[in-house]
Amino acid sequence: MSLFFLLNNSLRRPFLSPPPLAVLLACVMSFNVDQKNSLSFSGPLEDMFGYTVQQFENSEGKWVLIGSPLSGQPAKRTGDVYKCPVGKEDNKCIKLDLPENTTVPNLHEVKENMTMGTTLVTNPNGGFLACGPQYGYMCGQQQYISGVCANVSSSFQILNSVAPAVQECAKELDIVMVLDGSNSIYPWTSIIDFLQRFIEKIEIGPKLSQVGIVSYGETVTHRVNLSQFDNTADLLEFVKELPQQTGFKTMTALGIDTARKEAFMPERGARPGVKKVMVIVTDGESHDFHNLDKVIGECDDDGIERFGIAVLGDYNRQNKSAEELQKFIKEIESISSQPLRDHFFNVSDEVALLTIVDALGRKIFALEATTGNFTSSFEMEMSQAGFSAHTSSEGVLLGAVGAYDWNGTVVMYTAGETIVPGKTQFYDPETEAGYEGLAGYLGYDVQSASTPDGVLYITGAPRYNHTGRVIIYRLNEENNIVVSQILKGEQLGSYFGSVLQTVDVDGDSYTDLLLVGAPMYMGSERDEQGQVYVYKINQLGKFKHEFTLKPVNQSCCTAHSASCTNKNEPCGARFGTAIAAVSDLNLDGFNDVAIGAPFENDHRGAVYIYHGDQTSLKEKFVQRIPAGGDGEKVKFFGQSIHGVMDLNGDGITDVTIGGLGGASLFWSRDVAELRANMTFDPVKINLQQSQYQCEHSGRKSMCVTTEVCFVYSVKSDKPKFDSDAGIRYDLTLDALRAKARASFINSDDKNDRRITRSFTIKDRERKCVQETFMMSARLDFRDPLMVSLEFGLTDEDRGPVLDESLPRSINKTIPLVDCGIDGKCIADLSLKAEPSMKSMMIKSNKDKFDVNINIRNSKDYAYNTKVILSFTPNINYVKVEPEKGCTLNHTKVECAVGYPFLGSNVEENFKVKFEVNPKHIQEVIQINVTATSDSEELASTLSDNTVQISIPVKYEAGLIFSVRPVDEHIVVKEGEQFASVFNDTRMIGEEVNISYTVARAGEVVTPPLDLTVTYPHLSPRQNHLLYLTHVTTSPRVKCDADRWINTDKINPNIKKPNPNKETLSVFLLTCSAELYCASFTCSIPEAEISQVNVTFRVWKPTFIKGEFSSLHMLVNGTLGIKNTNLFELSSGDRTRIVKIQVSKEALGGIPIWVIIISILIGLLILALVIFALWKVISLSFKYHVTLREDCHRLDFLPFFFP
């Protein structure tokens, strides 16, 4: 995790750890890293003491190195590294004062914020490397953050400083100010103020920068030559009284050209080889703009980098139009060098010039760090080399995340040379357009992997495309980057690739795994849980994702939380912030991994231990080490981890874990193997066998002697504690039953079904103990008697821990039998099995059938009776009715019958259900049914214990057979002519395209098929009807149509059509003795979908000369199955017919006189209708008038009659 993470932390909810173990023998989450006895080192939390840790050893003793990157804050955050002694009475940590002694000569160094100790790695050849990636130096007024590392010897002496990104300052610049002094500039004092503020930022001198000033209006004047002043103060004094040029014209092209030709001349102080810079300040469009293109081109030829400043004061004062303003801005942009974002400025008026002084200065002074023309982008100047580091026998890899505008790079530093990859070596500009703006932080972490084919170098870019990526590459003979693989993150902002760790699990010197951390991976509650991706390298040297490791889920405060106690945000774990390859902790021969989750439990933190397994890891963590304390003095436990050394001399690797404010050294405890075995005498319980009878407390019954043997061995060659170990064990009878069927004798325990014993055992010793138990007088024979053994150490806090890969409990059973005095049970099983179907036509995967089973025992008890059904893979087992204890293993089902025994003269019936499996096609369903038991059976009665079932099957081909189109209509116009010569098939007539499709439907496969296409080829008088021109198919479909395609070979040949006139009056032209049909066949293989596309031309001359009005020609597509023994087609899937109708249009149309008479009759009818309507309306009107008059007369009648 970077400093960026930790300087922006807030609070989150606490993690609730699992409850303590309640019983001795429960599965525990702690293993052999001793959490109760550790050595702690404390330092200031605000100094980030504990940000990095490394174990270290030299001639003086053993140490823990601790990085404190903010040591010296708040005034100076130079950082430092502390050495903390191990195994001495005084374990006080001593500061090494690395910043003071880490220096790069001939530089104006800036160490105030160098953050030494941010990166800390030990050197395999002795000594260590400590880096301060914020180390900087000054070039003029510009500070560059290049980073530096101290190469420290085993005696804590700095051998040399490693700063591959430091470059010699190119301090010399020749700067000419070209000032518009025309009358429109107002007030001139604002220009003077701008000049003074700008010049103050320049170190002027013969070996530094020089400044010249040219002013212009209608004419040009040299105000200051480049060599005129040799210090900044004198020039500042001079420009106080700099006069304005004045003039009514703005001759910008003249001013620039004069400056180019004269101001940059050696006579005026210009120096050969020094970068030329021109700053043009103007407030209006030039009057000699027509010369600008030529002048600017000559400036480019002379290598003059130009900065253009547009002052908009005059435009604003005169309220000029937006078009005029835009035209002026475009002109100043054309004057400025590219890119415009670095070289063009505009301000609202003369006074506002002061606001751009700092920005202009940064752009110009950035040129001091580069030697190329027309660029002010950063390459290695802000690289922060040493942000990450990795040491190997090949050299040192240093991550430089700030290089190339924060896209980053990786620098390789060896004794012989320093390899700094170019800007584009880690990406392809053609396929990754816009990479420059991604700020991917390449080099955030670095690692290497050893393979039989050489070394792979690995680096992460956690901000690339916001999801992050990891680049795996090699160096070729020219030391150029050759990218071999890219791993991509999956979630935005997860910081995938920010933490990397390679692991050699089996210790063969070749890398097995690559672990990639994504510590900010969001969980389901938008909390930063984090996760770690595990990649395994294959024989081709490529990393393949195996699985993903995740932490214990942290509960976070939400809007719906009833109560919250967390103090810090963000919530989560940030699992994967630190990943360490740890030398074999549990002494199983495989190296292990420790992963930090510093945000767990309200930022207290935790570390997870994962054990190696062959060439991989076990997915389940074996130990979670939480931080102790209240989280106030030490935070983010698990921020750093290192575990490669034995620091207390017991032969076992110890683990150092750092947080902010402290670090702890955890001792690893030895690992012991404790193996147990249990035997019984007798091995079966038969109450009728008198020789095993015993008496206890006045009761006689059968007794069983149990012998338990233990073997104890310590793995380490140098055990730290006394080799004697205390062992405790428990024996329990019928643990799964409410009431036991036996009890221990001579037991002092109150619970006579369970005894607890303890003893001591030496390393490499085998010790056995015996216990006796008595059976109850009346036994339940339904299941065997279970004896459970649980064992462990009497003191789990001291001495070795038990190997977690070995069991801590054993369960064994003793069969209960009732077979007479001789102890022999002779059964006689007989089996019947009948299928519900004698044969099957399979249409889908849902077709089912039953096998009805009857099993009978005619003699002694048949213990552990089973019915076993073995079947061919063309069926699947479904279930048993009624339900029984059946187990499925591929194509075999075992069903327990009458468990624990099938009694004498007892029979059982049940039904086994199967369904077809159309993925396996076979002609027969074969099922072998066998009855077995643990009891003996005479050979003479075994013949009826087996039944073989054979069911012949056929499959209905699962397919969809379709054709397009179904109908086609061709019209022959009366009097239509045809060409006398055909030299192209398109001249024959209309094209008819027919497409046949066979697609798989359902689970049954589509078998190999034949598609036969039959079509009318020649008429009774041997005239062409349908002429085949093309047949195209899906891949693997083969057709024998070549002999029918373009039979006359038209184009290149020519064909003279000369059809015989004939009567084609038959409504349907189908294949008969008179009508000749052609056909061809296509072989269609097994496939999801297959197509056959057929193209015909209707032979138009035949139908033009023929006598008919309308007829139909039928094209038949018929499917056939090659393997008729196994497959069948349904009747509806066999044939598809396309009907091609040909019609002849009647001669002529409707005569004109008929059309005229029809129009006249229509108009007459319309007139009669209008007249009739008029009459109706007239009569209606008269009726309404009469009615109103009658009503008016009625108004005079009295309301009531007298």
From TrEMBL:
Membrane topology recorded in Swiss-Prot or TrEMBL: Single-pass type I membrane protein
Swiss-Prot/TrEMBL FG-GAP repeat ranges: 35-93, 371-422, 482-544, 561-619, 623-683
Top-level taxon: Eukaryota
GO (cellular component) term, any one: integrin complex
Pfam families the UniProt entry points to: FG-GAP, Integrin_A_Ig_1, Integrin_A_Ig_2, Integrin_A_Ig_3, VWA
Cellular compartment(s): Membrane
InterPro entries named among the record's database cross-references: FG-GAP (IPR013517), Int_alpha_beta-p (IPR013519), Integrin_alpha (IPR000413), Integrin_alpha_Ig-like_1 (IPR013649), Integrin_alpha_Ig-like_2 (IPR048285), Integrin_alpha_Ig-like_3 (IPR048286), Integrin_alpha_N (IPR028994), Integrin_dom_sf (IPR032695)
PROSITE patterns for this protein: FG_GAP (PS51470), VWFA (PS50234)
Molecular function per GO: integrin binding; metal ion binding
Annotated TM spans: 1150-1174
Keywords, comma-separated and alphabetical: Calcium, Cell adhesion, Disulfide bond, Glycoprotein, Integrin, Membrane, Metal-binding, Receptor, Repeat, Signal, Transmembrane, Transmembrane helix
Domain (VWFA): residue spans on this chain: 174-360
A biological-process GO annotation: cell-matrix adhesion
Family assignment from sequence similarity: Belongs to the integrin alpha chain family.
Protein's name in the database: VWFA domain-containing protein
Species of provenance: Scophthalmus maximus (Turbot)
Phylogenetic placement of the source organism: Eukaryota, Metazoa, Chordata, Craniata, Vertebrata
Gene field: itga1
